Amino acid sequence: MTTPEPTNVPVKIRTVVTERAPSDISGLENETIDAALPGRTGSRVEIRDLSAFYGSHLAVTGVNLIVEPTEVTALIGPSGCGKSTVLRCVNGMHLNTPTGRVQGQVLIDDINILGKGVDPVLVRRNVGMVFQRPNPFPTMSIYDNVVAGLRLGRRGRRTSEYDDIVEVSLTRAGLWPEVKDRLKAAGSSLSGGQQQRLCIARALAVEPRVLLMDEPCSALDPISTLVIEDLIAELKASYTIIIVTHNMQQAARVSDTTAFLTVPGLGQAGALVEIGPTSRIFSNPNEKATEDYITGKVG
Amino acid sequence: MTDTIVAAPITRRQQIVQAPIRHRGRRRVVDATMTGILAAVMIACVAVLLWVLGYVASIGLQFLGPEFLTQTPPGNPADAGGGFVNGIIGSVEIVGIATAIAVPLGMSAAVLIVEYGGRLARWVSFLTDVLVGVPTIVTGAFVYAIWVTQFGFSGLAGAVALALVMLPLVIRSTAEMLRLVPAELREASLALGVTKARTITSIVLPTARTGVITGVMLAVARAMGETAPLLLTALGNDLFTEVNPTHRMSTLSLQIFGSAITGYKAAQARAWAGALTLIAIVLIATIVARLASRRTFTSGR
Ligand SMILES: Nc1ncnc2c1ncn2[C@@H]1O[C@H](COP(=O)(O)OP(=O)(O)OP(=O)(O)O)[C@@H](O)[C@H]1O
Ligand SMILES: [Mg+2]
After folding, report:
1. B116–A7: do the CB atoms touch at under 8 Å?
2. Which part of the chain is the ABC transporter domain (chain A) (predicted)?
């Protein structure tokens, strides 16, 4: 899929999610740092009647889903059914594509982030994203990649705090032991799996409330995949996570809720077919389409 | 005796298995031929380049000495000796000012075209294409008409003319480099809650840095050699060393041109030395820019 260059979105300035007190990480110097941030949970995400367009092309329609804080929701479905598009609506990135349009609402802690007057920058401070292909900033070191969001986003952290934030974030992403002696090396000097964990660390460093992951393991080996799945299990106490995956086992392993999207027919828009607890979707789906997809009969 | 053995009939299976081997000879020939052609073309290109450099150097070096770099030309062009110090200073100063004008403007225009788009961007893009096609003597005449007729000949007028020559080159090369920056990097930055402006200055431009600098250096080299737009603007001044850009100034290119068209051997010798100096200045500037654009990862523990 092509991802056109972002352009300006004519929505501006309003705080979306109430600023929270910066979490206290000073007590986390010891080696074993729990991925969870004590005393905080993610945000509640609710998608209401969402339709997303590229120009006049309706890509996906009729999406309704609720993600409770501390839950992991998996989006599954055949290629082109609009999983990435839905995900990109949750942090407003879809409106950044030149022809991107939406109808419906995405509520994060009851604030419609697709509404007029919402500043997409503030939305994204609270909704992090990990992309399908690892994309560390090539001009930056590992260290600088991790603090990029804090530094470039002017997040009011003192430079003296950066060392701790880098260590905590990399530890939570399961990368610290591998890179702790080469933090000044180029981010792009890492292997693909390490780069992806670096990108996760980069997203965690700004402490979003919601974490969107678009096929985060599709470029990774089984071991790196397991590391990231374990990480998701730990992170869900503090972050609301929505993950897109083509791997049924992965959806079954990491998610509490599974949503199945599909394209009903050639040339039609993608749509949400079924959503429910992961265990039920995988053992006893209500819809025939879901069962066919999960058992590998189609898609 | 072995050459009398008759080969057994080849089965279909053997044919398939042997197919690549049968073509191997032809492939080798094609491979060798193409490699040879490409090598010849490359040698031809490099040879022309080395010929020009070598020729200029062989003649220029005969006349290039400390005197050449410290003195102005003699009053009588037929006399030997003297130098182009005023032209060296003029070239560096005028091109420096032109770069200071063209680079910020050109980079901003490229950012507008690639990162923002819209109607204004399309106009700027169109005007850039027009400006690229304007002959540089016309640029000089234009600056003469709107500037020199009011304020007289000056190094500054020359710098403006050169800036107009450099501007479309900078815009085009920078825009090309910005387009090469993957959209994923922009999205990664935006997804961290970084503003678009900051994404451009801190992610997109640094990623494109090496290519942008190369483009700027090409424009600088081009400006260094430009003579036509300076004839009508900076005019030239061979009497003394002028450093004030509001007065008429000489440049290396003007001096090379002026000396080469005289019939005097001594003046032509100075033109050769001047040509070599010009090449050396461009080369040094390029190397310095290359070194400066080396990637460094400075911050960290
Ligand atoms: N930038 C774009 N411009 C135009 N159409 C697009 C764009 N991106 C996606 N689409 C269209 O939107 C539909 C949904 O695409 P999307 O990328 O959301 O699918 P997906 O479910 O993520 O697929 P995959 O599993 O292959 O990643 C597709 O029909 C696609 O052609
Ligand atoms: Mg996708």
Report:
1. yes
2. 45-294
DSSP label at residue A21: P
d(CA B89, CA B249): 9
ipTM, interface predicted TM-score of the complex = 0.82
Q: Superfamily for B66-300?
A: MetI-like (1.10.3720.10)
Nearest to residue A88, comparing CAs of A57, A116, A63, A117? A63
With the C-alpha atoms ordered A100, A155, A201, A232, is the resulting torsion angle positive or negative? negative
Chain B residue with minimum CA distance to A153: B194
pLDDT at residue number B20: 60
From chain B, pick out residues whose CB is under 8 angstroms from the CB of A129. Answer: 187-188, 191
Top-tier CATH class for A10-20+42-294: alpha beta
Convert the pLDDT of each residue in B246-293 to its tens digit.
999 999 999 999 999 998 999 999 999 999 999 999 999 989 988 887
Q: How far apart are CA B202 and CA A229, in angstroms?
A: 32
Distance CA B11, CA B5 (A): 18
**What are the φ and ψ backbone dihedral angles of B81, each rounded to 5 degrees?**
85, -170
Q: What are the residue ranges spanned by the domains of chain A?
A: 10-20+42-294
What lies within 8 Å, CB to CB, of A163 at 6+ separation is B301
Q: Which of B102, B99, B117, B143 is nearest to B235 (CA)?
A: B143
Spans of all domains in chain B: 17-63, 66-300
User: A141: number of CA atoms within 13 Å, CB side?
Assistant: 16
Contact in structure between B234 and B157 (CB atoms under 8 Å):
yes
Cβ of A57: how many Cβ atoms within 10 Å? 11
Protein residue with least CA distance to atom 9, ligand 1: A1
Q: What pTM was estimated for this model as a whole?
A: 0.82
Instruction: Indicate if ligand 1 lies below 6 Å from the C-beta of A79.
Output: yes
Which residues are CB-contacts of A124 (< 8 A; sequence separation ≥ 6)?
Answer: A91, A92, A93, B190, B191, B192, B193
Backbone angles phi, psi at B132, to 5 degrees: -60, -35
Is A277 in CB contact (< 8 Å) with chain B? no
Buried b (16+ CB within 10 A) or exposed e, A184-201: eebbbebeebbbbbbbbb
CA Rg value for chain A: 19
Interface of B with A in 200-259 (CB under 8 A): 202-203, 206-207, 209
